[in-house]
TrEMBL record:
InterPro entries: Phox_assoc. Coiled coil: none annotated. GO terms for cellular component: endosome. This is Sorting nexin-25-like isoform X4. Residues 1-165 form the PXA domain. The lineage of its organism: Eukaryota, Metazoa, Chordata, Craniata, Vertebrata.
């Protein structure tokens, strides 16, 4: 995520959740905006520092895979055939009902706020409580509901497939219609799309191998 994208995210959040009510109460001419922006970047730095100690490869390729495997194995055992003895599918304690889920998210929010809030603000119990509640109700809870919606997952996968198909078609036209070798090299040098360049490299190797095989199999 770039600097401009992060700043834009903060601007939209400030406009929708703060300025919508604070603008009618005060005429501070942007003082609150700059104070909150300073704290926001301090939180971003803290988050970046803590995430730098996370082994992303291990989390994605090991921890997440094992967790999903365990989940689906337990789900399969719970949905055993009639002649088999089904095993109870034990849910996490936070998933018993909606109230338990909210309490669990509140605990997560409190930990995040305590770890990421600037040192000058972390001593304020009322501020921590308010921010944790906002984070729970306005961020974590909606995100969990969105990501656990099967229709959203299907729509997201479908959108990604359609996007890749459109991009592949666009890139295919781009290198197919290159009129000369010079234009082809220029197309490579001027493109920064990693997926396109990887696909182009694969096609170059594929056609080069085909040409080489055909050359050496021609009867002499």
């Amino acid at each position: 995520m770039t600097f401009c994208q992060v700043t834009c995210m903060f601007d939209y959040s400030y406009r929708d959740y703060i300025l919508s009510w604070y603008g009618n109460l005060s005429r501070d001419e942007g003082q609150l905006y700059h104070l909150l922006l300073e704290d926001f970047w301090e939180i971003a730095r803290q988050l970046r520092h803590r995430l730098s100690h996370v082994d992303v490869v291990k989390v994605v390729c090991h921890d997440v895979v094992r967790t999903l495997l365990t989940h689906f194995c337990d789900l399969k055992a719970a949905n055993a055939r009639h002649e088999e003895q089904p095993r109870p599918f034990v849910l996490h304690t936070c998933l018993r009902n909606s109230n338990d889920e909210v309490r669990f998210l509140q605990t997560c929010s409190q930990v995040l706020v305590f770890c990421l809030l600037p040192s000058k603000d972390v001593q304020s119990v009322s501020l921590r409580t308010m921010l944790a509640e906002i984070l729970t109700r306005k961020v974590l809870k909606p995100v969990v509901e969105l990501l656990s919606n099967p229709d959203y997952i299907n729509q997201m996968l479908l959108a990604q497939l359609e996007y890749r198909e459109q991009m592949n078609e666009h890139h295919k036209r781009a290198y197919t219609y290159a009129p000369s070798y010079e234009e082809f090299i220029k197309l490579i040098n001027s493109n920064s799309d990693v997926d396109f360049l990887k696909q182009l490299r694969y096609l170059v190797l594929k056609y080069s191998t085909t040409i080489a095989v055909n050359y050496y199999t021609i009867p002499r």
